[in-house]
Each structure stands twice: as structure tokens, then as C-alpha cells.
Design goal:
By secondary structure, the protein is of the alpha/beta class. It has helices at 13-27, 81-90, 108-119, 125-138, 145-150, 154-161, 170-180, 183-187, 190-209, 237-241, 280-285, 303-324, and strands spanning 5-10, 34-39, 55-59, 69-72, 98-100, 214-218, 221-225, 247-254, 257-264, 290-291, 295-298. The strands form 2 sheets. The chain has a 6-stranded mixed β-sheet with strand order 6-7-8-9-11-10.
Amino acid sequence: MSQPLTIHYHRDFDGMVSAAVLARVLSERERGELCWKSVNYDQREDWHNFEAGARFGIVDFHFHPRAEYWFDHHPTTFLSEDLRAQYLKAQDTPNDRWAWDENSPSCPPLILKHAIRHWNYQPESRFLEMARWSDVIDAARFESVDQAIFGDEPALRIMRALTVAPTIDWVDDLVGAMVEADLAGVANRADVEKAHQRASRNRDRALEQFPPTVAWKKDKVLLYDASSSQIRRERFAPFYHHPDIHYSVGVIPTRSGFHVTAGENPWNSPHSVGLAGTHIGNLMERYGGGGHRSVGGANPHDLPAARKAAAEIAEELRRALLEARPHGAA
């Protein structure tokens, strides 16, 4: 009997849908057992030996040359120039198991497009819906900040429930549910509803707690420190309270330490006022992280390092905005 194939995915809505889509597609192609397991940035430290001796695929996460299947849309997917070179060399011969498109708003549409083209897959309507919402959530294409924070659509209920995952492997259970059910079916699960109710209470508290966390606000950039475990976190709170800013940078706690997060205001980006902006994912690479042009993160080794990195990143974004503005502009 052959080894099972494990699909590793980034632990967020985009990654979970990617894993569910690929699992469904491969269930029609692979005769062996399929399973899935989340992966996160702290597992990159020994990336060369990741899952040594095992069969695996990766979606919505860094390129690995031993991955039997790999799909990603992050411009920072290659952890070294050598890995980039290995990928580019592999493109010299036809490869229907890897695909990368940094212009894709999220990963599921990339997988579906590839499966349709190379494997004659006919996607179910529920996966098309999941892919559409993955684009909305991962690329912050919400209609408004109110939809992002208070939206009640099934995908948004799941998105919010993920912020209070009761265990680290709960997301694996939800991927299994997505393989078989539509978004409404997953959102209506008792455990998801319970998590959503708790997360909504946390959201309301986070919005109340955010203002005192602001360290400074200068030239359309806001820096905040929400590193205390007593402070709830709301991703879009900076833009809810300060709709005039272009960027927010903050420090937040995670299960594995502290995380620096930075992002453009989706409803008041630098581009909306004619400024080029900064590629946040590339900026985060300097601190061992990554991301996209408009959002990114990093996990420094301790709180002082996280605070230092956040302050430096905020200052760099501020300087870039000042340099990009016409002389004398406010």
C-alpha cells in the first residue's frame, strides 16, 4: 500500500479552501489515502528537511521541491534564490502538478483554473463560491470596512470563527467539512457557530480596546502595540477607527510568540490618491516574514524584537509616503 499524501496548507480561510479544493480534485485522481494538515511560518526554519520521507503537497504556502503538488500565489514564496532556480528549471519541461501566479488574489482560483486546464476537472458550484470568497477575504476586497468587521455571510462567519480556533487542529476538521459541504453547511456547524459567537464578542471588545494601543499616527501611517494577551485583536480596527490612514503596523500575540502585521487600508490605499505605495511582502522578508504587496507579516523571536521591527517598518512606510508625495502636498 502506498503512503498517504498529506496536503499542507496555510492556516487561514484561503489556505483551508485551497486544501479542500485540491483534496476533492485529487480524490478523483489519486488512488491512495489523502489527508490534510495546516502549516505555519515557524515551520520554515528547517524547510529543507520538511516532511522528509513522506508524500506531501503544499497549497497557499512556500515552494518546496519535494512537493508532489504545489500551488501558491505569494510573491515571497521562494525562501532562497536556489529554490527559485529549482522552480524555474522545472518549468523547462511540462509540469501539471505545480502552479504559481503572484497576480492571483487568492490560491483556490489558481487551483481550479489549473485543474480545469490540465485535468479536465469540472468544479462544483460550491467550490466556485468558496474561491470567490477567498478572493474577497485574502485580498481584502470587502465592500466596506463594516462588511469586513460585521458581515454575516457564511464565509465571513467562518473567517471570524477562525480567530478563536479552540485547538490547533480544528482547522483540519473544517477542511474536511469543506471537502463535503458548501459554505453555509460549514458555517452552520455547532462548533463553528459557537466559535463565531465568541469571536463576535471578542470583536466588539477589540474595537473598544483598540484606541489606547495606538503608539503614534503620523503622515497617514499608524503604529499600534496590541501585544498584551488581555487585548483582543480585530484585523480592521485601525481602519475602522482611523479611516484616513493609508497603512497600519502592529504587534499582536500568537500561540507561538509575537507577530508583526502590516497592511494597506483597503478603502484608502496609497494608490487611491495616486501614490505608488510600498510592497509590504518584500519589506517583511527582511524580518523573516513575507506576504503580498498590500499586506504581510513576520514573527520575530521575542517581544522586544517584534516592537523594534514594527517601529522600523512603520517609519519606512511613512518615509516612502512622504517621498512619494508632490512637494508641498498634505
